[in-house]
Each structure stands twice: as structure tokens, then as C-alpha cells.
Amino acid sequence: MPTLFQQIQAGTLWDFHGGIHPPVRKSQTSSKPVAQLPLPDRLYLPLRQHIGVAGRLIVAVGQRVLKGEALTSADNSMAVPVHAPTSGVIHSISQHTSAHPSALPEPVIVLVPDGKDEWRERRPLNIATSSRHQILERIQDSGIAGMGGAGFPTHLKAGMQQPVDYLIINAVECEPYISADDALMQEAPTTIVKGIDILCQLLNPKAVLIGIEADKPIAIAALKAACSQREHYYVREVPVKYPSGGEKQLIQLLTNKEVPAGRRPADIGIVMQNVGTAFAIAQAVLDDQPLISRIVTVTGETLRQPQNVLALLGTPVSALLDFCGFQSEAQQKVIMGGPMMGFTLPDLAVPIVKTTNCILAPTRDELPDNGPELDCIRCGQCADACPATLLPQQLLWYSKARDPVKLQEYNLFDCIECGACAYVCPSEIPLVQYYRVAKAEIREQQREALKAEQAKARFEARNARLEQEKQQRLARNQQLAAARQQAQPNENQAVAEALARVKAQQAEKAALQATDSAKDHQQILAERELKKQQAREYQAQKQAAAAASVADRTPVSTSDGSSDNKAAAVAAALARAKARQAGQTNSTMAEPSAIAAEPEQQDPRKAAIAAALARAKAKQSVTATAATTVTEPVAADAVAKPEDPRKAAIAAALARAKAKQSAAPAQETAIVKPDVADIPVTTEQQRQAADTAIQPDAAGNDDPRKAAVAAALARAKARKAQQSIEQQTTEQQHSEQRDSEESKTE
User: What's the pTM value of the predicted model, to 2 decimals?
Assistant: First the structure.
């Protein structure tokens, strides 16, 4: 029995399940040459025109770009850049209607052509000397993605590392109306074969299988002629059947291999590329021309000149339709893609992208609208027509019920959305639309689940990291604790010594503070007592001076008597001063003893009371001493008892009178009248005493007028003496009052 490769070499073909035979309707465009579309006014270039992620924008508004210059950069393996189809200026970067069934807006670059069509510098590669990496990098930088419909990045397919048995070039183009690949194979078969050579250099397959539908005889002949010099390049004519151009269906037709559910053709050693993709690879590697244009079939009975047009990417659909003589009718429908897998455009400003192969503008009679959707009659025709051997009826029910578990159980994602089930459905149910919605919902749920799983993984990783850091901290703390325990005896001794030094310093400081406070208190008391002593001495000196002045002013009859009176007065004043000094000395000697005893007292109040009592006793001793030391009782009393100045004045006057009487017999002729002014006449008794004191003098006086004058002068002097004594008495009272207040304060 021949092997599989031998059967393939012999030209054996197989079949796939299901399929339909809709009207082909390709003759309107397949026999015409490819037309060149003039430059439109504006080009709308979406940032993402393939399956994957958009590239990073590298141009700005107002920037002039050259033909073939990159507008985005591929910073991800699933990204391919977009290039300027012609030279011009970047007008804006804004949102525009997308070339997608959802028609959602997407970011696009609006390019205004300048008409010069000026190319950037181009650097072709020599495939004989270029490395595999250089070729793959050139394919990616040229922005090449699958041009058969899915738009998968070509450099990923061409850079596979696992061994490849068969490289299949899909040139079937099975959908009705579309003839873009047919026109390409008729006009550039040699370039296509060069692109296949580059793919073989990258993948190194055992054989190359080129599948073309049998209704394209010119293209078949052209490719066979181009491949005649290549070994193991096999051009195979497949029967006209829809969807024989599906990836899994064509693999089964050419190799009799089935791709398992949820797997890729690469898993069974097969790589498939579209014929248009091979042509773009040859242009990119050999001519350094990025993917900036493609052939688009513009057809339909509303067009006067349906044909295949070479259009720049980003060209609005309206420009293509106008170029082919579009004649719109009421409720006109324009489809991007074929009638089986295409979608209706909501806006004719939608641009041509890398995966656009057809623009269909049919009349209502040519392609009537679907009738109202009816209930499923369970005829089973959809299951018979499904090329993926699915159960479209069950998928419909679970899609309406939004049961993702059952949908995945019935292999919803194996559906290629060919539309064969909807084409044969007698109830006019748009099955493919239900499947697309269900797929979108499941993908969204999967994305959310993936995000949640990633978030959970990040959370768990964070917790693990925190736990690890915690364990590391615990280990470090344990090591430090062990080290501290080993060094603890020395540390405890050092701590104890430090505490002892601190306590000693505190005790020394407390003792110094106590000593300083006691010294301060003693110093304050000593200074206070010194001030009091100085005040008392000053008062005693003042009183002595006053007494001396009174004695000096007292008139005497003779010089001896005058000197005796002055001497007596001075002696009395000196006695009183000495008595006061003795009393103050006793008080000062008593008070320091109390002050010295104060530090031993615990309560400052008790010390103050003891000091006050000591001062009171000192005053009493001063009074007693003064009473015993006075030689002349009358004069001492007159000075020591200042409470009644009038009595003191009378006593002084009587003393002077007695002194004069004793001196009168010796000096009768020289008698001078006594100083009657010193005797204050306030009461009748005082006047009589004064008169008695004056009588001896008056008896001896011969001139009564002189006696009257002398008496008046004596009274004036007495008044002055009385005022001086009253002033001294007042000052003494004030001093004693201050002493008493200070004693109370202490």
C-alpha cells in the first residue's frame, strides 16, 4: 500500500464532510485585468488590521511621511506595523468606523496624499546570504499578515521551530463573486513562486501543495508553469465546493489529515499560507516593499464596471464604488467580503484593510434579504451541510440560552463561520450570527476569568512573598536574640553599672540642690536681719541726733548750767542708743541660732514661727535693758516713751526748771528765761506746771516786758521741739509696724 506522501505525489485528493454549491458568479471579474485605482483624497489607516495587538504610534499630526514609511512600530510579537501607502501629510489621528461586523469606532491615522508618491529608501535582501532571523524580521517590519481572512501575523507562522511536513498554499478562493486571488495568480505567478521559495527556506517542508479550485484554469496553468522548475511543488485542482478554501477542509482535501478539535495545523506538521500572503512576502524581502496595497474584487449588479482593483490600504469603500460606476438604489446594501462570510457595512467611509478581498454591491433581486426568522423544524439540513461536522441546531439552542458550558461541550469554536448552515436553513434562521454573538460572550468571559486568575496569582505571589519576608525577619530576629543572649552577661553588667552611675549622679544632684536651697534660705534670712538691724541703727542714730538738737536748743542761765544740761541730755541719748544696740545684738544672736536650727526642721512654717518668737523675746529683752540703764529717769522716760509727746515735753520742761533753780543763787543777775516754748500748754494742769517752772525766773525779773518776750520765745521753741518729737515718734511707729509685718510674713 502506498504511503501518504506517495499518494500526494500521485495527485490523490480526498473529501470533507458537508459543504454546499452556491452560484459562483465570478465571471464578471475573473476575465478582466486588474485596474489601478487613482489616489483618493484621504486615506484612513487603522492602527490594527490583523489578529493581535496594535503597534506603537510613531508619527504626529502635521508630519510629512514618504511612501512605505512606517507609521507604527512592532514592539510585540503579535503586532505588525502599518505603513504609509503614499507620500503625504498626517492630517489627524482620530476615531473612525472600523472594518468589522460590529462597526465600532477605532483609532485611525488620516493621511492626505500630496500626489508625489515619493518612496522612502528601500533596501532589498539577498535571500542567499540573509539569515533566517533577518528574513523573519523583514517580514514583520513589512507589516505582513494573513490575507486570506483571519489576518494572523505571518512571521509567527513562518518562524515555527517544529518540523513541517507540508506547506500548503491556499489559492482555492471558493466563496462566490470573489476573484482577487485568481487575478493575482494570472498576473504575477512568478512573484508568488518566489514568495513560496522564501517560505520553504524558512520552514524547510517535505513538499509544497498549491490548492486551486478547478474553475480557475488560467491561474492553474500559470502556476504550473512557474513551478515547473521546482521539485516537490505540486499544483492541485480541488473540486468546486464551498467551503473547500477553509483551512481544515483544504488540509483534509489535500492530505487526508484532520486537525483535532482545539488544535492547530502546525500540531500535525502542516503550515498553510494564502497565495496573496506569499506574493506580499516576495515583495517585502526582494523589493523592500511593505504591505501597502492589495487586489480587491469590486462587484455587484449595481456597478457598471465590476472588476478587480489594486487599491491602497486605507482607501474608503466609497472611492472604490465610484471608480467602478456605482449606481445606488433604495435600501442599498454593501457587503465587505463575500455573500457567505461577509458583513454589511453601516458606512461607505469604512477603509480597505489588509484582510479585505471583496466589496459586493448587489441589487435586491440579485441578493434578496432574508425573510422573517421562523422556528426551527429540526430538518437536520444544517448538520448535513456543516463542513466541521458540528450540530448547528444544538448550538443554536445553547446560544440562545447563553450556556457557555454546553456550547464548549458541543465545540462551538470549531465553527469556521462559513455560513453553509444558514444558507440551507428553510426557516431562514441566521445561525452564524447567533454563533458569533455566543463566541464573543464566551471570549469576554474567558478574558474576565483570565484577569481574575492573573489577579489571584498576583495576590498569592504577593502573600507568598510577604510570608517569605516574614519568615526571613523571624529568622533574623531569632539570630539577633541568640546573639544578645550570648552577650547578655556583659550587657547586664554594663547596664547595671550605668544605672548605678545614674543613681549616684541623681543622689549627688539632690544633695547639692538641698544644700543650695538651705544656704539660699539662710542667706535670705541673714540679709533680711541685716537690713532690719541697719534700719534700727539708723532710727537710733536719728533719735539720738534729735535729742542732741533738743538739748542744744535748751537755754541755761550760766555757762556751767548750760554745759551740764547738754551733757545730761547727751548722756541720756547715748544710754538709750547703747540700750537699743544691746537689744539688737541680743536679737541678732538669738536669731542666728534659730536660723541654724532651721535646716534640722522638716517644716518651713515651724521654722518661721520659731524665728518670730525669737525676735519677740529679743525685743522684750531690749525693753528691759533700756529701763535699767537710764540714769535720769525723767529724761529717759521722756525719750523711751514716745507714746505721749506732751507728757514728755512737760517732763523735760520740769527737768530744765529744776536745773535752773539749782543754778539760780549763783548767777541771779545772768538768769535768762527758760525756753517756755518747749512746754506745750494744752491743759490747765500743764499750764500751771509750766508757770511753776517759770515763777522763779519771773520773780527775779525787774522788767515785765522782757519777761513777756522771753516767755513767748520759750513757747515758740517748745512748739518746734514738740513737732520734732512727734515726727520721730511717727517714724518709730512706722518702723515697728514694718517689723511686725515682716514677722507675720515670716
Answer: 0.63
Helices (runs of H) and strands (runs of E) counted in the chain: 22, 16
Place of cell 483609532: 107
Burial zone of 684 (CB within 10 Å; 0-12 exposed, 13-18 middle, 19+ buried): exposed
Nearest to 91 by CA among 54, 55, 63, 67: 63
Burial of 590 (0-12, 13-18, 19+ CB in 10 A): middle
In the sheet that holds 270-274, the strands lie side by side as 233-238, 207-213, 166-171, 270-274
- All three cell numbers of 726: 512727734
Pairing type for strands 207-213 and 293-299 reads unpaired
Backbone angles phi, psi at 309, to 5 degrees: -125, 135
Give the helix/strand (H/E) hosting 64.
Answer: strand 64-65
Distances (CA, A) of 563 to 388, 569, 578, 659: 163, 10, 22, 11
3-state secondary structure of 62: coil
Strand segments (E) across 4-85: 35-36, 43-46, 56-57, 64-65, 72-73
Vertex 701 angle, CA 696 and 702, to 5°: 150
Q: Which residue would you say has higher pLDDT here, 513 or 458?
A: 458
User: Hey, is 83 helix, strand or coil?
Assistant: strand
Burial class (CB in 10 A: 0-12, 13-18, 19+), 521: middle
Tens digit of each residue's pLDDT (9 = 90 or more) over 269-306: 999 999 999 999 999 999 999 999 999 999 999 999 99
Indicate the range of 327-331, 446-450, 583-587 predicted with least confidence: 583-587
Q: Supply the DSSP symbol for 94.
A: E
> How is residue 88 written as a grid cell?
503625504
Is the pLDDT at 160 greater than 50? The verdict is: yes
Q: For residues 400 and 423, what is the distance between their CA atoms, to the nearest angstrom?
A: 20
